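# step 3/5: fold
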Amino acid sequence: MEATGLGAPKPRRSAGHRLADLFHGRPRLQAGTLLAGPVGWLVIGYLGSLAILLIASFWSLGELSGEVERSFTLDNFKTIVEDSVYRTVTLRTVGIAAAVTVTDALLALPLAFYMAKVARPSRQSLLVVAVLVPLWSSYLVKAFAWRTILSEEGILNWALDPLGLSGPGYGTLAVWLVMSYIWLPYMIIPIYAGFDRIPDSVLSASDDLGAKAWMTFRRVIWPLVFPAIVAGSIFTFSLTLGDFIAPTLVSSTQFIGTVVKSTITTNLPLAAAYSVVPILIMIIYLLIARRLGAFEHV
């Protein structure tokens, strides 16, 4: 006979129900479980690789064997600081990164403002797609396309030839052009989001109070959109600092990325030490941005 009444055995709960009971009423456990994978990947894959990079920067090469010796030394950093070649390359790279960032900001500001505050919703969506489309294509495709455009027989020289002009060819100016084009969407999207968060009523109130366009931009728009500009500049500045593919394709000038690439096969510890330089530059940049209040309204 089947057991009935008070003596009946309780039905066994499934593993899913037991797991649900474990998480019920425990928000910290729920959040910790959800974040365990991403945080683990961040710690192991990203921070772990940076830690290995930092450790390798203190190693050295054997004078006779040429093999990596895992002994602590500051010679690599001493070489980078004292050798004028590395200082020149660093300053050149920072200069190009700053030029690309300023160029992209100047191009992105009016376009993002038009997208967020002037264009109709249907046209706004079309412009957002147009900005995102270049991100769907391969980085190498875009870099090689610019290599073709800037070549002696490229379309740029063909278009300028009737005017008696010629393109910049390959060199530092070409690196600036290519980088500005490739990283421009990374500047437009954050600034567009920043403009979109500004209520139209704020701009109307400024106009009602008699403020001219420049005063509205300086006193109202700029403080509100400045964090978005900084967010975009973090992308453009950092990505330009470490890039080595585009500079290799359109220039023979040395940058931090190209020096690290060429050194890593012959002197791994020195390449690791030089890779720390852009990290330090970005830390300083972020500290300055925070000092200026860029992250207060993010």
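# step 4/5: annotate
The beta strands are 60-61, 68-69.
# step 5/5: archive (pending)
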